[in-house]
Each structure stands twice: as structure tokens, then as C-alpha cells.
Amino acid sequence: MTAAAPEALSPVIAVVTAAGSGSRLGAEVPKGLVPLAGQSLVRRAVQGLLASGVLERVVVTAPQGWIEDFRREVADLGDVEVVAGSSASRQASVALGLEAALRAQPDAALILVHDAARALTPPDVIQRVVAALREGHEAVIPVMPVTDTIKEVRTGEAVEPIVATPDRSRLRAVQTPQGFVRETLLAAHRAGAQRAASEGLAASDDAGLVEAMGAGVVAVAGDSRALKVTTSLDLLLAEALLAAEERVPAQRG
Ligand SMILES: Nc1ccn([C@@H]2O[C@H](COP(=O)(O)OP(=O)(O)OP(=O)(O)O)[C@@H](O)[C@H]2O)c(=O)n1
Ligand SMILES: C[C@](O)(CO)[C@H](O)COP(=O)(O)O
């Protein structure tokens, strides 16, 4: 860990992954375009990032064939580029977003990778991630404590045998944005792409690629509002969270 002056760790850019189809949500349009109280998930996710005040540029990866629809969603939000992601995996979509983002901002020092599906992530989570990077950590992820007891099972059997019960106090559920020093993320994705080609395995998050390289990843506090909209139940929950936030100022006033 090497602490650098904050201004030396600028500019900060973000890749927003929105190239998934949202099969578990089952909407008629890709998940990023699904409205949440009148505004699409991708629009809300980008707005949240920009509201943090720490970002120079945002690149969104969208599904092939939907680029123009995504562009319309973010057109009025500022310096936001939309490029095609990959249907193969989130990891492949992030890699395409990274290429585009670094073409547009070659001097980026810090890179955030964020899920459009975490549309309600509050700006202070984003600020915490960037602050920890500027304190000298090379990879930072927001996390939440786990509230269920988690079991490890042996898969592939109709009735799955339990093989372990990890100590819950040491488990964390991982959110985004995940933040990285530029070279750390690029090296991790280079190694990850080789593994994906040789073993056919993609990582489900970017920090996993950094861990696989043997580099350190640290956690900061996440937020329950940064939930990932995956199923229709999550969408209902997100709508309820927004409605509750709108009611609170009215009650105070
Ligand atoms: N090939 C892919 C797959 C996922 N993602 C993005 O990664 C984030 C997290 O993925 P998830 O919530 O699983 O989204 P989907 O893959 O769209 O969902 P599903 O698995 O239900 O199809 C989403 O913002 C999604 O758009 C992506 O950019 N490219
Ligand atoms: C990156 C992530 O949101 C961290 O929890 C998650 O791993 C994405 O996984 P998914 O299977 O693509 O939803």
C-alpha cells in the first residue's frame, strides 16, 4: 500500500456494465432499460455515479442491437459514452468497456466498475471506494454483512450434501462500484482473459480477477440501497426504497 496525493490519483473514470439481458428479471427489454419509478436502471446508475462528484467520464456497455436505445437514456447526463458489450459474460463486457474508456480518457488513474443493475447505489458509497483508493489501496470493494447462514454444498446431485458452514462473521456480500488503480485492473483483466480462453471460466466480479493475480483487495462499507436488481422481487424492493425516501423529506417538512 502506497499513499499518493489525491490529485495524483485522478482522473477517475467508470465503466457501467449494462450489456446483460436480464433473463432472471424476464422483461421485454434488456434490464438496463427497465423503468424503476419512471427512470431506467441504467439512467439511475449513471446519475448516481455522476452525483458522487468524483468522476471525469462514464462509459456504459450495452447489449448489441440496443446501443441507440441506451444512448437515448443517458444523452442528457453529460460526458457518457455507450459502447457494445459482450453477450458472453460480464467479464468480457467490462473488458470492452475498459478499452473504450481508456481510448476516451488515456490518462485515467483510477477506474470504477459498476453494475447498471445496482441503480440506487448512493453517492457516498462511490466516494468511500475512491477515498480508499486514494489512501493507497489498489483494489477496493463495497460489501455488506451476510444475514443468512451460508452453507457450502456438493453440487451435481438431486439432494445436495452440505460440506461446510463457513463462519458468517467473516463473510461479506459484495456490491459495486468496485474501484481499482488502473494498472491493477488492466493486468487482472489481461490474466482473466487468458484464463477465460484456456479454461472457459469468467469471474463474476472484477475483484476476483485481482485476487487471482495474488494482489490485495480491501472492503469498505456498502449500502442496502446498492442492491442488485436481479429478479422482479428486487425491482419491487427498489421501488419501495425509492418511495420511502420520497416520503421521508415530506414527513420532515
Ligand atoms: N454479458 C453480460 C452480462 C452481464 N452484464 C452486466 O453485469 C451486471 C450484473 O449482471 P446481472 O445482474 O446478472 O445481469 P444480467 O446478466 O443481465 O442478468 P441475468 O443473469 O438474469 O440474465 C448487469 O448490470 C449486467 O447488465 C454485462 O454487462 N454483460
Ligand atoms: C459484480 C457483482 O455485482 C458483485 O456482487 C456480481 O458478482 C455480479 O454477478 P452476476 O452473476 O453477473 O449478477
From TrEMBL:
Write out the similarity annotation: Belongs to the IspD/TarI cytidylyltransferase family. IspD subfamily.
Q: What is its EC number?
A: 2.7.7.60
Respond yes or no to whether keyword Nucleotidyltransferase is given for this record. yes
The record's InterPro entries line, in alphabetical order, gives: IspD, IspD/TarI, IspD/TarI_cytidylyltransf_bact, ISPD_synthase_CS, Nucleotide-diphossugar_trans
Domain of life of the organism encoding this protein: Bacteria
Q: Which GO terms describe its biological process?
A: isopentenyl diphosphate biosynthetic process, methylerythritol 4-phosphate pathway
Pathway listed for it is:
Isoprenoid biosynthesis; isopentenyl diphosphate biosynthesis via DXP pathway; isopentenyl diphosphate from 1-deoxy-D-xylulose 5-phosphate: step 2/6
Organism, as annotated? Actinomyces marmotae
**In chain numbering, where does the site feature Positions MEP for the nucleophilic attack fall?**
R168, K228
Q: What catalytic reaction does the record list?
A: 2-C-methyl-D-erythritol 4-phosphate + CTP + H(+) = 4-CDP-2-C-methyl-D-erythritol + diphosphate
The question of whether Nucleotidyltransferase is a record keyword is answered with yes
List the residues marked with site Transition state stabilizer: R24, K31
Keywords of this entry: Isoprene biosynthesis, Nucleotidyltransferase, Transferase
| Function according to Swiss-Prot or TrEMBL | Catalyzes the formation of 4-diphosphocytidyl-2-C-methyl-D-erythritol from CTP and 2-C-methyl-D-erythritol 4-phosphate (MEP).
Could you tell me what this protein is called?
2-C-methyl-D-erythritol 4-phosphate cytidylyltransferase
Q: Which GO terms describe its molecular function?
A: 2-C-methyl-D-erythritol 4-phosphate cytidylyltransferase activity
